[in-house]
Amino acid sequence: MNTKPYFFFKPRHLLLLAAIAGTTLLNTGCAPLLLGGAAIGGTMVATDRRTSGTQVEDEGIEFKAGQRIKEQLGDRVHISVNSYNRIVLLTGEVRAEEDKATAVRIAGGVENVAKVLDETAVTFQSSLSSRANDTLIQTKIKATLVDAKDLISNAFYVVVERGDVFLMGRVTEREAKRASDLVAGIQGVKRVVRCFDVISEEDLANTVPRPAAKTP
To answer: Taking the mean position of all CA atoms in its chain, how far away is CA 104?
Structure first.
């Protein structure tokens, strides 16, 4: 099992590990898996650890980048666009390195994008059976994370492409490692690519709403 990390350092000791978000799909790409919570306009507003404003921005980024890539590259590419905390993940298949560069340039030019992670491959487009297998893997991941009693499943955002699993979310180091280890052990997973916004336990306590105090 291979893991591939990306490291980004931001203010307040924010660490992004991409070893990955809503998605806009081009040519029936593999959809992201959102765990738990209530979806509003395609986004996990109620339980997502991002602010509601950031969630709206991410949806806008996905839509604009997806449309612009499709307009310029058309059906010769199969690219899925996912954004979390304004970090854009591109997955799928392209015909040439030039197409990869064009997709990255387009995504990077969308308003509010902070970073683009290019995980597209120069290869033939994935088959319907391959995409069906990705959906099966997503189902297994959902069940595994929901069953993990020491994790909050809805903190994780999952994309699967050709057996590669991209994990995203605002999680602690413990949550990141635990989830990655669990996913890596699932049958059919070829690689785990993490793009977590790692926060401290204290930050998590300040992020997640506390339950209302019970009335005596």
So the answer is: 16
Angle at 127 between CA 102 and CA 89, to 5 degrees: 35
> How far is 67 from 63, CA to CA, in rounded Å?
6
Q: What is the DSSP letter of 45?
A: T
- How far lies 154's CA from each of 33, 55, 66, 85, 114, in Å? 10, 14, 25, 16, 24
Answer for the pair 183, 165: CB distance below 8 angstroms, yes or no. yes
Q: What is the pTM of this model?
A: 0.73
- The CA angle 166-143-201, to the nearest 5 degrees, is 65
**Can you tell me the distance from the alpha carbon of 65 to that of 117, in angstroms, rounded to the nearest whole number?**
13
Cβ count within 10 A of residue 127: 10
pLDDT for 130-183, tens place per residue? 999 999 999 999 999 999 999 998 889 899 999 999 998 888 999 999 999 999
